[in-house]
Amino acid sequence: RQCTDVICCVIFIIVILGYIALGVVAWVHGDPRKVIYPTDSYGQFCGQKETLNENKTILFYFNILKCASPVVLINLQCPTTQLCVSKCPDRFATYIDVQASYRYRPDQWNYFRQFCKPGFNNPRKSVAQVLRDEDCPSMIIPSRPFLKRCFPDFSTKNGVLTVANQTTFKDGRGKTRNVTDLREAANGINNVLDARSVGMKIFEDYAISWYWILIGLFIAMMLSLLFLVLLRFTAGVLFWIFIFGVIGIIGYGIWHCYWEYDHLKGIPGSDLTVYDIGFQTDFKVYLQLRQTWLAFMIILCGVEVIIILMLIFLRSRIRIAIALLKEGSRAIGYIMSTLFYPIVTFILIAICISYWAVTAVFLATSGEPVYKVMANQTLCKYANLTCNPETFNTTNVTKLCPGAQCTFAFYGGESLYHKYIFIFQLANAFVFLWLVNFAIALGQCTLAGAFASYYWAYRKPADIPLWPLFSSFGRAIRYHTGSLAFGALILAIVQLIRVILEYLDHKLKGTQNSFTRFLLCCLKCCFWCLEKFLKFINRNAYIMIAIYGKNFCTSAREAFFLLMRNVVRVAVLDKVTDFLLFLGKILVAGGVGVLAFFFFTQRIPVFAQEVPMLNYYWVPLLTVIIGSYLVAHGFFSVYAMCVDTLFLCFCEDLERNDGSTAKPYFMSASLHRILGKKKLSPKK
């Protein structure tokens, strides 16, 4: 062997080094506190230690009615003054009422002014000027903190939306408004708060049932291993039982259609045609027609005939597919370490996801505070322009636009680095896709090399090399990193294009241009098909790389033409394998799920005292079912790779050898008996 696709290997290493450099730069410029802590109108973090806001951890909105939805409040900036406060207001009050009573009720003023701008303590200032300069909010309403922000304390009483058991409130501008006016600003908050309560209960359930969940997953692992072992003996039986079951069910359907067709004979109106009655929203009407049941019977007869003809003409290929499945079970039995390789792939992908997520957060928070002019007057020409809060009061903006303020808007910047943050995010996503596909390719090539060493061992298992999995992993890393990176690069490019198309589709959803939507739909469909095709080609190319050690393009071409020369065998083997492995996943997940259901619902008397007290028994139950399916999928993905590798080796064996002494077959005796061509030459 020699190194393949060296140029791509060098580029891949350079990209990885550049990716590390991007992460370092993002780490230097980024500040995750911008995500963790809310930011007030002055660009200061609420709750940040060693600052004036250290004890003020919650963000308060002067006029929450200006905020469209919680999404705007959390992700964007609401067009109203925002301050850091130590606690949310717990009562209704307006600035007008508080100012009018501050002389004989100073406690009300002292409570209200904690929601005013820091340092403001002038209750004699006119209400109009206070509201114009936004020194204080025009009103406060009972609120509670959520995501470190003050939201109205909504509740439902007899189906009526209330805040602190009131349905109306004063807006501080001389009007009495209904609580429903706050609905848009807090739409869905009750559901989210309820979800938070449910989330705490779910966390408690996980805390007291985690070890039982692990036991369930361990049982799923043992069942998966048992199923793979049993496939060596039961693959043919399971497949034929399923096939004859399908034939029997379709046969019953034909008989039932004939019975309905004959039963409707002579009934008035049953001889009408579908064309006569036209389109009906009640589909039961069509079941009263003899023509409907005749059509069903003809369709089912056609399907039955097709299945029987396929079984007759493809019986030898089906037997080969079943024999390969049994051979795959035997190969895994000799190389048991392959069953645990998916853990390595999982760890590599987890590292890629973690690095991508951390880099994306640091890039997103690497901007500097940007301040913009916020004016109450809609005709102010300076509105939404950037400003400097330190020099804002010396400009003429406040004169031309009374009440205008220079407030924090978002994080960004005008430097070269800040201008290309979007490009960096795109590069982060692209390299992430490349690395994930490389990790998957490395796993496929490693497993293919291990199973190929089993097939090409003339005497099994005596000629199987020592530590075949580790040897295959070493060959893949040492010689074929460039080829694996090349295949992963092609797939990553297509996946990035699909991501961009999804983004454009999301942005253009509201457009009325039908041609644009149609074009996007076609492009999404085409690139989806292209991705599926490339995954199929790459998978088989990696197998050929593991066997012969050639470069990616040569391996992909040889694999493709080899499969095309055996296209019927490929189709039969693919469907037989898919069915049996799907059946195995359902059996494992279903069996463990039923066992977990009886356990967590205390229906197993022996373990009734061991069952933990849960808020929702379905939390560990669903976790066990989904986890069992994923465990089975991990084991069966190894099995599927084994079968695909053995199939390509089998096709190569048939084309390169003829069973003679000079060119003996390397296939097992069972596969050779099915072919029935020549006798195996004696193995020495």
From TrEMBL:
Catalysed conversion reaction: choline(out) + n H(+)(in) = choline(in) + n H(+)(out)
Alphabetic keyword roster: Antiport, Cell membrane, Glycoprotein, Membrane, Transmembrane, Transmembrane helix, Transport
GO molecular function: antiporter activity
Pfam families named among the record's database cross-references: Choline_transpo (PF04515)
Residue spans crossing the bilayer: 7-28, 210-230, 237-255, 293-314, 334-358, 431-458, 479-501, 513-530, 579-600, 621-641
rRNA-binding as UniProt keyword: no
InterPro entries: Choline_transptr-like
Subcellular location: Cell membrane
CC per GO annotation: plasma membrane
Key word Transmembrane present: yes
Topological type in the membrane: Multi-pass membrane protein
Family, per entry: Belongs to the CTL (choline transporter-like) family.
Task of the protein: Choline/H+ antiporter. Choline transporter.
Protein name per its UniProtKB record: Choline transporter-like protein
Organism of origin: Serilophus lunatus
Lineage of the species this protein comes from: Eukaryota, Metazoa, Chordata, Craniata, Vertebrata
Gene responsible for this protein: Slc44a5
